[in-house]
Design goal:
It is a single chain. This protein is an alpha/beta fold and 290 residues long. Helix content is 31%, strand content 19%. The protein has a 7-stranded mixed beta sheet with strand order 2-1-3-6-12-13-14, with helices on both faces. It has a 4-stranded antiparallel beta sheet with strand order 8-9-7-10. The chain is globular. The relative contact order is 0.16.
């Protein structure tokens, strides 16, 4: 089973790189997690086969692990804050813990959600690469919790606020060795993992405005939609970032006249058990199998 999953990740990564890697790009975001290992591998193999020059490309990683991955591959890595002002990444490749039918994502299982969101919102397009387990009709269908990065001093008040929003279990994530205390992010913050009793609606109910939706979902039946819950959690004092990637994608943000702000992928590639790749694209109904 493990070998099948790894093969599915690699197949999806190869197809995503084939479709979206541009050797003339200046800046490329590289996310975190096991799937991204195969993305970097696919980039290297492609450029060797085609004799492409990567020396002019700067790769922007989303954390320590992905930075080491980029450097070990012989590529140039720069920190996010070295990106020139007003310049967007040509593309960002990253994984996800779960993706719904509208391409909303849960991210943060690897505790890199803040830098992952920085990179996603500053990319012309975010391409998600995952295996078939991550494709679900609604978020919180299989992945059980929403990761939230919080300032340590505020962690307990954030837990209380999450309970008020309807979370039925919110805990501070422990480190690899529990006796060493809570896990720390690259920003030296805590990760809070919050369960909610129902899978999230991909979009608000059409009959409700934002205020009505929030009142009903938080106070009556607990049926939150993704974007309303993301906004409610982000408003809690002490929360740095929420592991819900929702709202606009990069193309939609540009069309709306926004310089930055797209969080959702423009396309998601899922490696399947049978060796095929399912591609779901923003704005298109259904899926394409390749």
């Amino acid at each position: 089973m493990a070998d099948t999953i790894e093969k599915a990740k690699e197949t999806a990564a190869r197809k995503a790189v084939e479709d979206h890697f541009d050797p003339t790009a200046r800046y490329i975001g590289i996310g975190s997690g096991s799937t991204i290992v195969f993305v970097v591998k696919a980039i290297i193999e492609r450029t060797k086969e085609r004799n492409e020059d990567l020396s002019r490309i700067s790769f922007v990683p989303t954390g320590y692990q992905s930075r080491q991955l980029v450097l070990n591959a012989g590529l140039r890595a720069i920190q996010f804050d070295s990106l020139p002002r007003g310049v967007l990444l040509d593309v960002a490749f990253d994984g996800a813990d779960e993706v719904d039918v509208d391409l909303n994502c849960i991210k943060g299982g690897g505790a890199c959600l803040y830098q992952e969101k920085l990179v996603a919102t500053h990319a012309k397009k975010f391409i998600c690469v995952a295996d078939h387990r991550k494709l679900q009709p609604r978020l919180l269908s299989q992945w059980p919790k929403i990761p939230i990065e919080a300032e340590p001093l505020a962690a307990h008040s954030v837990l209380e606020a999450l309970t008020a929003l309807g979370s039925n279990e919110a805990t501070i994530r422990s480190g690899a060795v529990e006796k060493t205390g809570p896990l720390k992010t690259d920003q030296d913050n805590f990760i809070i993992d919050a369960k909610f009793p129902h899978p999230l609606l991909p979009r608000p109910l059409p009959s409700q405005d934002a205020q009505q939706q929030q009142q009903q979902t938080s106070r009556v039946d607990g049926q939150w939609d993704v974007e309303s819950l993301a906004k409610a959690i982000k408003q809690i004092e002490g929360v740095l970032s929420v592991g819900l990637f929702c709202g606009l994608n990069g193309f939609e943000a540009a069309q709306a006249g926004k310089t930055i702000g797209g969080q959702k992928p423009t396309a998601a590639y899922f490696g399947m058990e049978d060796g095929s790749v399912v591609v779901r694209k923003a704005g298109e109904e259904g899926e394409m199998v390749v």
